[in-house]
Amino acid sequence: MLAVGVWIVRFGLIAQFCLFFLSGAQAATRNDIDDAIGQLVKAVPNMKLEVELTKTWNRAYVSDRIDGALLTMDPDFLSRLTPDGVLFVIAHEYAHVHLEHQKKLGAKAMELAGLPTPDMAFDAIEKNPATMEKLHAMNRQFELDADEAATKWLASLGVVACTEDVLRSIDGADMMMPVVPSHPGYYSRKQVICRK
Ligand SMILES: [Zn+2]
């Protein structure tokens, strides 16, 4: 009986190992998010970020609310990341908050449309492709600025962002700001992240 028991335990371990291996070795989980925030607060003083895992069309996006920033992240996207990938994604998204990108896009929209609130301005600009392109251009630059800030924060923690894991996490490039759906391509982002 004992021998059978040992065998079952052994078989169980082997099966677990195989599942782990088949699932792509290091699929990230909620713990990696908490670890990443715990790491990042050392590089970014006063960082405050809540993360919500929920099915979303964008892989990950941040909202800068009055009571603190909220990052919404797709659980399938998370499971395709490695821990360093999670660290980069969270750093990139928080950089948008730190650099006040949402506020700046809103202010730019109000200026371009000549309207008193960002919502009114975005609505008006949506119907005007030439003006919209001006906001898109600003947003593309903000995406690269967020990559640059994230790369620097990771470097200060001793983590190199220019790796396969991290670059894979941004390939497809739909970690965009929700207000203005435009972003630079994978190669211009790789240039910023891998710049020596
Ligand atoms: Zn972004």
Write a short abstract of this structure.
The protein is mostly helical.
Structural description of this entry:
The protein has 196 residues and is mainly alpha-helical. It has nine helices and three strands. It has helices at residues 2-22, 30-43, 75-79, 83-98, 101-113, 118-126, 129-156, 164-170, 186-193, and strands at residues 49-53, 60-65, 68-73. A three-stranded mixed sheet has the order 1-3-2. The longest helix has 28 residues, at 129-156. The radius of gyration is 20 Å and the shape is globular. Residues 92, 96, 143, 146, 175-177 line the site of zinc ion.
Q: Cα distance, first to last residue?
A: 62 Å
What integer value in Å does the Rg equal?
20 Å
The helix-strand sequence is HHEEEHHHHHHH
Strand-pairing-aware structural class = mainly alpha
Helix content: 55-70%
Strand order, largest beta sheet: 1-3-2
Task: Specify the overall morphology.
Answer: globular
Hetero groups bound? Answer: zinc ion
Q: Low-confidence parts lasting 5 or more residues at pLDDT below 50?
A: 16-24
The number of helices is 9
- Sheet-strand content, in percent, reads 5-15%
Number of DSSP-assigned strands: 3
Report the mean per-residue pLDDT as an integer: 82
What's the story with the biggest beta sheet? Answer: 3 strands, mixed
